[in-house]
Specification:
single chain; alpha+beta; 5-stranded antiparallel beta sheet; 3-stranded antiparallel beta sheet
């Protein structure tokens, strides 16, 4: 019985392929002159797909800057992160492009993972990340204290006063 079914299946497939002849098949390739004409038309943009046109003329978005403004660590609750004038009090999503991974925050090192357009970056409070150069920078600068020099007249008057007090 098995062999009978096998022979029937093989014979029907041979018959089906045998009926197709070269005349019934359409050619895949054309002559060299027609191919040259098609190539010229393709170079001129005749066969551009509409999706390609839409993607090439679409508006490019501005690069994203992520400013880590602060972090509040709470006992027995998720931490609150302040980024780009937003926070994670109600949800971990800041906007369409920024999602804070609050459960993965390293509390001892203050490292906060943030997903920015399908890329995860790690920031500390006071740092900034820019999408154009993809580098993390400190958002603040510690300035050196300025030394103010006293004018000469004040020095002279201070010396005169000490001389007057010390002299009998």
């Amino acid at each position: 019985m098995r062999y009978f079914l096998l022979t029937i299946l093989l014979s029907t497939s041979i018959i089906a392929f045998g009926n197709d002849s070269q005349n019934n098949l359409r050619t895949l390739f054309t002559s060299a002159s027609i191919r040259a004409q098609l190539d010229k038309q393709r170079e001129q943009g005749k066969f551009i797909i509409q999706d390609q046109l839409a993607s090439s003329s679409s508006i490019i978005r501005k690069p994203i800057t992520v400013k880590m403004q602060g972090l509040v660590l709470r006992k027995k609750k998720l931490p609150v992160v302040f980024i780009n004038d937003g926070n994670t009090l109600s949800s971990r999503v800041i906007n369409d492009e920024l999602i804070v991974k609050t459960k993965q925050i390293k509390r001892k090192k203050y490292i906060i993972p943030v997903r920015v357009v399908n890329k995860t970056i790690k920031l500390k409070p006071g740092q900034q990340w820019n999408e154009t150069d993809r580098k993390t920078q400190d958002n603040y600068e510690v300035s050196k204290p300025k030394i103010i020099k006293k004018p000469e007249t004040e020095k002279n008057t201070a010396n005169n006063i000490t001389n007057l007090i010390s002299s009998p």
